[in-house]
Every structure is written in structure tokens, then in C-alpha cells.
Design goal:
Blueprint lengths: L2 E9 L2 E10 L3 E6 L1 H6 L11 H4 L4 E4 L22 H11 L9 H11 L8 E3 L2 H13 L7 H12 L8 H8 L11 E7 L4 E2 L7 E2 L4 E2 L2 E10 L7 H14 L7 E6 L2 E7 L12 E3 H8 L11 H11 L7 H18 L10 E3 L6 E2 L29 H8 L7 H14 L3 H7 L5 H17 L16
Parallel strand pairs: 7-11
Antiparallel strand pairs: 1-2, 1-5, 2-3, 3-4, 6-8, 6-10, 9-10, 10-12, 11-12, 13-14, 14-15
This protein binds adenosine-5'-triphosphate and magnesium ion.
């Protein structure tokens, strides 16, 4: 059976149709609309499926099990994790239909059409143009108002507490509209929150539907809201610390807010894929870009960190990417991830921001040190191919694939070791993080720092410089 969908985007001049898509059993075919090509807008379906690369030619993507739709659209299919609020809500919405879709791809396709707008980046997916026009029309008419906070959080808390029946999907869907929650283990929502100074307890948990710019006199901004689930108790505290450390290390890091509501830990991060006036900015993960460009790519394991460096270089031949800056940034992130016990810097936690003519590596997001949890204790989510020598030697060697001399790579690694010299102490000082997680992370990070070759005796907890 062929399935049809249309792609639209919001621009400063209003919604605009980008093109038509057909998905057959074997392939997805996408063609740009004449009006879109005529508009000269460079920001197409995906970085490697841009109007500059395809123009009037059809973009054809061979489907494979990991990609039942083109990679750029995968984010609209809610993940299957138990914590995926969106899938659970949409399951309930679909169940109310006269003829609910069959489990499997039918359901995923319908979920994509429910979830397919106002997500991360600039792509909106609809069943057809009429649905697009109706969808945008409804969004304009929706009266911005702050959500009924207490009822909402009560429902969410009960949901987190695994009481599925307590959640009223209609109420929440109404409050939030389509709220893509791409992948991930942490429940999250796309919302707008008051533009208050960032920090702890400065935001009281008020929010409105994503895209809201003002409630009364107060300015609102778009944010990604993460809700700490029980099985990852402490993740909000640890992620916030790592956001701070990345900012201190000179990375571009979005503002964030933390609040505790009824015992739930919330982390709101300002979205960087929206302009100040709320217009979407293209954003696409490394994962999506690599999978679009390489038919053999099926996951993080299909590459290694050095290949990532080389792929960035290749990308600069078909986009405006400054590969020198991009490679330097990613190598620095790689070193800092190693020094902080991140282990989770996979290809969906790295993205490109901007279309093919303005693309750069996106600011830092999701830098949580997941090695604190034994089930996530891997050195690097992107494989590192080891050669002879120490761990330190290997990490420095990897720098070459990022265009760096041995000396330059070594300086970066040492810089990251230096900025994290008090990291373990800061982890241990965190409140709201269970001791078991802190001790586990501390132990792992200390061993890792040791292997990275730069641990002075005075940095060890419980030891002092003598003499
Ligand atoms: N500040 C931001 N601005 C725009 N998009 C963001 C921002 N933070 C995250 N995103 C997007 O939302 C997605 C999900 O966020 P994030 O990676 O923080 O959570 P997660 O994937 O649930 O965490 P985990 O990787 O542990 O499962 C990201 O992959 C990214 O596409
Ligand atoms: Mg993530």
C-alpha cells in the first residue's frame, strides 16, 4: 500500500508547502513543490536532501528496518520506551477512532501524522494539504493561556507513578497540542515557559503550549521540558551540573531552569531551534544526516568516532559547514564527555543547526553523565577503535580525524581534564542525587581520569599535598 504525506514549514511569512512524499513498501519518494523551489528557500527536507542538491529531481530513500520512513522524519514516530508520554497519549487517541490502525507500522504512520508538527527543527508533516491548512489555522486561533498547572502536574505525577488510568489524554493533548518527544528514556514535553532569569527555583513550573509568545504581559519562550523518572533519580541534578561545566568550558549552552513540583524534578532547557519570534530553525541530528547519506548506516555502531570526523569533512563539500570549526567543537565535546563520565554522546545527542547555507554544530544538549547508571556504563556511545598505546594515546590519536595535530589534540584533552579537575567534588556535593549514583560516577570518573593520564595526587579525594 502506498502512503502519502505532505511536508510544510512555518516561515516568517507564514506556512509554506515544501513538497509531497509517497512511501511504498521499499522506498520513500519526495518531490519539492514548484512554489517552494520558486521561493528560493534553501532549507529543505534534510541537509542531504536539500533543494540545492535535488531541485526538480525526486529524492528517493531506500527504506530499511531501522528507517521505515526517511531518517529526518523518524523523530515524529514516538519511541517505544515505557516513559514515552507521547506514544501513550497517542495510543489512547488512536484507540478512540472508528477503525484504529493495526499495530506496527500502520500505528507508527498514524502517530507520525498526529505528532508531525511543531517538533524539533522546521519540518511539519501532514496527511494532505487540507490537513496542513486546517492544522495551521487551528494553531493561530488557539487562545494562548497558561495551562492549568496543578491539574496537569497532578496527572503527570500520577502517570510517572505508573498509574496509567489517572491521566486524561484529551486534557493533556489539548493543553500541549502535538508535542514530539523524540526518542529517549526521559519523559519530555515541548512547551513555552515564562522568560524568567535562569537558575534554580526562579521558574515556578508555569507553562503554556509550545509557540506561545506572551501570557498577559509576560514574555514566554519555547523550552524542552524533561521530567525526572524514578529509575533515573538524580539525572536532572547531574545533567544541570554538566550543562554548567560545558558553559564554563566555552561551549554554546542554552539557558536552563530547574524546579521541583510535588516531589518531581523538572528541567526546562531553552530551545535553540526557534528564533526569538518563534520561527523554526532547521535542526537535524548527526544520526539522521549520516543515515540519509549512507545506505549502510543503521546506528551508532555503524561508525566510529574517527569516521565522524571524516564525515564532517565530507559534509562541508555539499553544505556551507565550516568543517574546521565543527570538527574542533566535536573533538572538544568528545574529550569533555570522557572526562565527565557521559558515555551517552551518541549521534542523536549531536545535531546540526541551520539549513545547508547556514549550518553549524548545534549548542550542547543532553550532556548527562549516564555512566552513573550501571546499565549505561560505556566509555563512549560512538565506538572508539583502539590501536596500540594507552587510552590517552588513543584519544589523542583520534584528534587527527578531526584535523588536529597530536599537540593540538593533547592540549584539548589536557584542557578538558583541567576544567573538570573538581568535577568529582562537585558531583559529590549535589543534592537530589542518590549517594549510590554519585559514588558510582565518582569511581568511574577517577579511574577514567587516571587512564587519560593526568591525575595529580592532590586531586585524589582524601589526599593532601605534603611537604
Ligand atoms: N535546547 C534544545 N533546543 C532544541 N532542541 C533540543 C534541545 N534540547 C534537546 N533538543 C532535541 O530534543 C531531543 C531530546 O532531548 P534530549 O536529548 O535532551 O533528551 P533524551 O534524548 O530523552 O535523553 P537521552 O538521550 O538520555 O535519552 C534531542 O535529541 C534534540 O533533538
Ligand atoms: Mg538525547
Amino acid at each position: 500500500m502506498d502512503r502519502h504525506a505532505v511536508i510544510w514549514m512555518r516561515t516568517a511569512n507564514g506556512p509554506m508547502k515544501m513538497g509531497d512524499m509517497v512511501v511504498t513498501e521499499h522506498e520513500a519518494r519526495f518531490a519539492y513543490a514548484e512554489e517552494f523551489l520558486a521561493s528560493g528557500n534553501p532549507d529543505g527536507l534534510a541537509l542531504l536532501a536539500s533543494p540545492a542538491l535535488y531541485g526538480r529531481e525526486t529524492f528517493v530513500f531506500r527504506l530499511r528496518p531501522a528507517f521505515p520512513v526517511p531518517p529526518r522524519l523518524m523523530q515524529f514516530i514516538p519511541g517505544h520506551g515505557r516513559n514515552n508520554l507521547q506514544r501513550r497519549l497517542y495510543d489512547k487517541v488512536l484507540a478512540t477512532r472508528a477503525s484504529p490502525p493495526a499495530p506496527g507500522f500502520d500505528t507508527d504512520w498514524e502517530m507520525m501524522l498526529l505528532a508531525g508538527r511543531n517538533g524539533i527543527g522546521h519540518i511539519d508533516v501532514f496527511r494532505d494539504d487540507r490537513a496542513a491548512e486546517a492544522g495551521y489555522g487551528a494553531a493561530i486561533k488557539r487562545h494562548p493561556r497558561a495551562a492549568d498547572r496543578s491539574a496537569f502536574w497532578k496527572a503527570i505525577r500520577e502517570d510517572i507513578a505508573e498509574d496509567l488510568e489517572a491521566i486524561d489524554p484529551d486534557q493533556i493533548a489539548h493543553l500541549l497540542g502535538p508535542t514530539p518527544s523524540a526518542g529517549g528514556m526521559i519523559p519530555k514535553l515541548l512547551v513555552a515557559i515564562p522568560d524568567v532569569p535562569s537558575g534554580r527555583q526562579s521558574w515556578n513550573g508555569d507553562f503554556a503550549p509550545a509557540g506561545t509568545r506572551k501570557v498577559g504581559e509576560r514574555r514566554y519562550i519555547d523550552a524542552l521540558l524533561k521530567i525526572e523518572p524514578r529509575e533515573y533519580e538524580g539525572v536532572v541534578g547531574l545533567e544541570s551540573l554538566c550543562l554548567d561545566i560545558h558553559r564554563e568550558s566555552g561551549f554554546d549552552v542554552p539557558r536552563y531552569w530547574r524546579v521541583s513540583i510535588d516531589g518531581m524534578q523538572l528541567l526546562a532547557v531553552e530551545r535553540f531551534d526557534r528564533t526569538a519570534s518563534g520561527i523554526p530553525v532547521p535542526m537535524e541530528s548527526f544520526y539522521s544526516v549520516f543515515a540519509t547519506g549512507d545506505a549502510a548506516f543503521n546506528g551508532n555502531e555503524d561508525t566510529d568516532i574517527e569516521e565522524v570526523g571524516l564525515r564532517l569533512e565530507q559534509l562541508s563539500s555539499v553544505t556551507s559547514l565550516d568543517h574546521k570549526a565543527a570538527r574542533l567543537m566535536v573533538y572538544r565535546r568528545f574529550c569533555l564527555a570522557l572526562c565527565t563520565g557521559n558515555g551517552d554522546m551518541h549521534l542523536e545527542n549531536l545535531s546540526f543547526l541551520g539549513g545547508p547555507r547556514s549550518v553549524r554544530v548545534a549548542p550542547v544538549y543532553d550532556p548527562a553523565p549516564m555512566r552513573a547508571w550501571p546499565q549505561h556504563n560505556v566509555r563512549s556511545a560512538i565506538p572508539i577503535v583502539f590501536e596500540e598505546g594507552t587510552f590517552r594515546d588513543n584519544v589523542i590519536r583520534v584528534g587527527r580525524a578531526f584535523g588536529l595535530s597530536n599537540n593540538a589534540a593533547r592540549d584539548i584533552l589536557d584542557e578538558m581534564l583541567d576544567v573538570t579537575r573538581n568535577y568529582v567534588t562537585r558531583v559529590m556535593a549535589l543534592q537530589d542525587v542518590p549517594d549510590a549514583r554519585k559514588l558510582n560516577l565518582a569511581r568511574i570518573v577517577e579511574a577514567e581520569r587516571d587512564a587519560l593520564g593526568k591525575i595529580a595526587p592532590c586531586d585524589l579525594p582524601g589526599t593532601e599535598m605534603r611537604g
